[in-house]
Amino acid sequence: MHTDVLVIGTGISGLTYAIKLAEEAPETNITLICKDKLEEGNTRYAQGGIAVVSNFKKDTFEKHIEDTYAAGDKAGDRGVIEFVIKEGNDRLQELIEWGTQFDRNNKKTLDLTKEGGHSEKRIVHYKDHSGAEIQRALIEKVKDFENIQYFENHILVDLITDHHTGSKNNRCYGAYIISTVDEEIIKITAKITVLSTGGVGQIYAFTTNPFGATGDGLGAAYRAKVKLEKLPFIQFHPTALFPKVEGETFLITEALRGEGALLKNLSGEQFMGKYHPLKELAPRDIVARSIIREMLSQQESNVHLDATGIDQTSLLSHFPTIVDTCRSIGIDPVTSSIPVVPAAHYSCGGIAVDEHSKTTLDGLFAIGECSHTGLHGANRLASNSLLESIVFSHRAALSSAQELNKISLTSTFYTSIPDWKGQHFSKDNEQEITLKLREQLKKIMSDQVGIFKTNKGLLAAQNTIKELYFEVVDLYNSNKLSPQICELRNMVSVAYVLVNQSLELTENKGVFYNHNYGKEAVL
Ligand SMILES: Cc1cc2nc3c(=O)[nH]c(=O)nc-3n(C[C@H](O)[C@H](O)[C@H](O)COP(=O)(O)OP(=O)(O)OC[C@H]3O[C@@H](n4cnc5c(N)ncnc54)[C@H](O)[C@@H]3O)c2cc1C
User: What is the Cα–Cα distance from 156 to 185, expressed in whole angstroms?
Assistant: First the structure.
């Protein structure tokens, strides 16, 4: 199959990109694929919303720029931060024009909330399921375009590069894809390929990311020798519901703390004042580390988030999903505290891109959470990732529209690219061993490469993950290809690069904390 543009991933970034490109270059043939249903991915779970300067009476670009730079521990790229924040409101207006609903106040202007690290109220939201609303609207919009086709249950195996074609262009020519519908491995050639595959949270045991967030785009990019950067900067969300609900970790949004919810240890004492002057609204990395310190000092398995002080009507109307989920496991946030722990949440690093989302491989773009743009520095400011996705997807689409006109490869060239030469497909091959290795990897990452690291732990993790890597490659080479084996191969590659890059860091910044370089007291 041949297409002008192949987009791998249908979260906010892949869908925004496709809509924008379809509007910009209507003659372009765009193919979207996703590993599950169109709606599944990190986007649909986003609760808080999008950080955008839209109330120009109170807020300014400068304030948002400074908040972003400060939250990122001064490691962000100031040029990138500036254009993302200045372009944010135009992109937000487009989301609204495309049918996304956001909550409004009685004057019909956007209802803005505040989250940790923000100096002003600027979070645009839809109740406590902003991501699901954005995803709904974008899916409806994408279906309006005749030049966009999409395939659910199609999984990226590998990018097609010079390695497959024998040419020397440093170029990407599409991808090999598993269709779990037809149970075959297909070749999709494309002039431009876009990775929008989302996060990597599943490499940890406790994560807010859904089951499919296995870093597939990063794994494929790594095998294609594309540059990955800043992988050690994994943000842990301070407050995930404890324990898991039906095997899945459920996020308790930061907006609840923004509305006044308090963190308490199990003896009912507020503790954030001991760790940071901004208390509950300190940047996420500090809140997450403080919670772990408090849990360790009190020898407790979790802490509590007390939202009982929030006006009941406001709690029920702004946070219906949280209230319902907590009630489903017998906790009523109106009257009782919510048990919470930190969980792996967001990858600040990823595939290195320029200001138009171009990677180091020609013809390959990366957008959204799988990319590293420089916006977040060493720590992402709350609600800045949906913002990053809409701004960079727009830029990538404009840049792709220009680049498409310049690509002169012939159809004979694309047809000459070999079909997949590897293994056949199997839906449930070696499931047991794959699952066992997946659990093993998650445990190593959580135990030794979590919120607090040490050089000793990182070196031990490096050795074990290297062994695991060879075991997985062996499993991959000697078996039929299944989605599970593909995911595991990507997870172990991402973990390996993350640990190696962690060992290269000799200074603590933002979310990266190694006791060997620590300023905070050793536990
Ligand atoms: C619980 C939670 C709450 C959050 N809250 C907020 C918030 O309030 N504000 C904010 O700014 N950010 C928030 N975030 C972060 C934000 O939601 C994500 O960073 C963002 O949605 C990522 O969008 P994306 O388009 O890059 O990827 P995703 O939405 O994760 O989409 C990834 C897509 O890639 C596809 N895919 C993956 N691998 C493959 C493969 N091998 N083959 C084919 N397709 C593949 C998936 O099927 C999916 O379609 C939250 C994240 C979580 C998990």
Answer: 10
Residues flanking ligand 1, CB < 6 Å: 8-14, 33-36, 40-43, 45-50, 130-131, 155-156, 196-199, 208-209, 212, 216, 251, 346, 368-370, 383-386, 389
Structure-token pair, residue 447? 């135990």
Confidence class for position 275, pLDDT limits 50, 70, 90: very high
Q: Are residues 103 and 25 in the same domain?
A: yes
- Choosing from 37, 43, 256 the residue with most ligand 1 atoms within 8 A of its CB, the one to mutate for a pocket test is 43
- pLDDT tens, position by position, 334-376: 999 999 999 999 999 999 999 999 999 999 999 999 999 999 9
Q: What does the alpha-carbon distance between residue 143 and residue 339 come to, in Å, rounded to a whole number?
A: 41
Q: For residue 515, what is the DSSP state? A: G
How many Cβ atoms are within 10 Å of 358's Cβ, its own excluded?
A: 20
Looking at the annotation, which residues are catalytic? 284
Per-residue pLDDT reduced to its tens digit, 253-263 = 888 998 999 99
Q: Which atom of ligand 1 is nearest to the CA of 251?
A: 1
SS3 222: helix
Q: What CATH number should be reported for the domain holding residue 328?
A: 3.90.700.10
Q: Which of 197, 340, 376 to mutate to test the pocket of ligand 1 (most atoms within 8 A of CB)?
A: 197
Question: What's the confidence (pLDDT) of residue 282?
Answer: 86
Residue type for position 127: K
Strands 50-51 and 123-124: antiparallel
Identify whether 96 is part of a domain.
yes
Q: How confident is the model at residue 183 (pLDDT cuts 50, 70, 90)?
A: confident
Which residues contact residue 203 at a Cβ distance below 8 angstroms, ignoring those fewer than 6 apart? 214, 215, 344, 441, 442, 445, 491, 494, 495, 498
Identify whether residues 400 and 470 lie together within a single domain: no
Enumerate residues 6+ apart whose C-beta is below 8 A from 163: 224
Range of the domain at 65: 2-232+348-416
> pTM of the prediction?
0.96
Residues 93 and 124 in one domain: yes
Q: What are the pLDDT digits (tens) for 417-463?
A: 999 987 777 766 678 999 999 999 999 999 999 999 999 999 999 99
Greatest extent of the chain over all pairs of C-alpha atoms, in Å = 71
Terminus-to-terminus CA distance in the chain, angstroms?
Answer: 56
